[in-house]
Amino acid sequence: MQVHFHKYQGTGNDFVIIDNRNNAYDNLSQPTVAHLCDRRFGIGGDGLMLLNTSKDPQYDFEMVYYNADGNPGSMCGNGGRCLSAFAKKVGIKNDQATFIASDGPHEVVYADNGWVYLKMKDVDWVENGPGYFFLDTGSPHFVRYVTGIEEMDVFNEGRAIRYNERFAEVGTNVNFVQETENGIFVRTYERGVEDETYSCGTGVTAAAITTANGENGDYAVPVQTLGGPLEVRFKKTGERSYTDIWLCGPATWVFEGDIKI
To answer: Which residues of 205-235 are buried (b: 16+ CB within 10 A; e: fewer)?
Structure first.
């Protein structure tokens, strides 16, 4: 089978994207997806996405996401922004769009500076434990504040948490966060990739939400990742309730090609 693909990245979080609006790739197997995401024997990526026609006409498209290991994944924030940029490239005419993903509907705004703003699901529960936060922003995230983040062994420390007694069966993403002069620096170990990635959209969203320990109101949190800058905007509406959450940042086409599988 010959597959035409596009490669996109959002702050270094990179993805294989396939236009599946004709349903030609509905039955991609786990080994096939894993092969396409392999950085030595395939195209290489932190995940793979299909651009599908939505079965519900109120949405412009449907997002189907696979982790790099080939298994179906939960919501991916940077992936959603990259797929939205691709949808714009192949046909979205307006400066706004809507799509449906595994965690529900999302809104998109295409900014003049090339950034893509993605509205995330509301968060109405945050577990605040001793030295950590745990919350779901479309995917589950464990958040821990640290110092010396640039020297951390994120792979081993993140893997130890992802596979501990609590999380081993289902898994969690693990985010290490350090406060900066005007925001936060975030590094993430991602389940499904089973390694550190340059950036994680749902992860920086989770980390940004945990900074809002003060009064209710509007927040805009600059976030630095290994792959570049993002911004998370949201409203705090209760002690552990957050709405109108937007993940904002670049989503860039890298290359396209054909691969025989």
So the answer is: bbbbbbbbeeeeeebebbbbbbbbebbbbbe
